[in-house]
Backbone:
């Protein structure tokens, strides 16, 4: 932390509040440490008591390849936290904080080093106590899936269930620390009205409503 630290201007970033009242910010489209515009994958923490920012991970400088590109994700081993893990450059994800104080994000739009835009259904967990990311979603695009929705049976959790690729979803956390997501945009133009619940204790999704 330092008084001079500050994230670059951006939009579409992911935000959380941790159990200690600190604010967190990830990615978005904006300006890096050299003033270059691109899709970002940096992680920041803001302490409301000291009013200081801390850069916690991700790249501080752009991948200068002549476009507003960004960084590919580093997934490593499914379910295992690692220092090398990092989501790609993301905008318009959904996010929540669970009852253990861990920070989660789902989906969004990834922009890679070739300037390709991809809607994702990846899910990531960040543990502030060890400052490491874990890729947690076995049936997502990053895990080798096709990004399609697997509904299963309405109201039932299952390992294979997963919402399809999307951005701009609405999200909540309930009193039990479970994550809920409603709607979003798929394929750049299809508006969804699905309702999903994710239980961190099971690491499973259930389709709870919508068509």
Residues:
């Amino acid at each position: 932390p330092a008084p001079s630290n500050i994230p670059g201007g951006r939009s579409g970033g992911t935000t959380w509040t941790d159990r200690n009242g600190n604010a967190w910010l990830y990615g978005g489209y904006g300006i890096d440490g050299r003033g270059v515009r691109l899709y970002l994958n940096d992680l920041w923490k803001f302490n409301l008591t000291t009013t200081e920012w801390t850069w916690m991970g991700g790249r501080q400088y752009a991948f200068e390849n002549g476009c507003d590109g960004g960084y590919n994700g580093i997934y490593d081993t499914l379910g295992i936290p690692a220092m090398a893990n990092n989501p790609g450059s993301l905008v318009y994800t959904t996010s929540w904080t669970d009852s253990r104080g861990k920070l989660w994000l789902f989906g969004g739009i990834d922009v890679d080093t070739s300037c390709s835009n991809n809607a994702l259904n990846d899910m990531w967990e960040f543990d502030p106590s060890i400052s490491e990311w874990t890729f947690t979603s076995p049936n997502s695009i990053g895990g080798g899936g096709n990004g399609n929705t697997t509904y299963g049976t309405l109201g039932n959790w299952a390992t294979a269930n997963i919402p399809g690729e999307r951005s701009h979803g609405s999200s909540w956390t309930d009193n039990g620390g479970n994550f809920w997501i409603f709607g979003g945009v798929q394929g750049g133009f299809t508006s969804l009205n699905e309702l999903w619940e994710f239980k961190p204790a099971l690491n499973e999704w259930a389709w709870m409503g919508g068509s």
Notes: The chain is about 0% helix and 40% strand. The radius of gyration is 17 Å. Residues 92 and 120 are 11 Å apart (CA to CA).
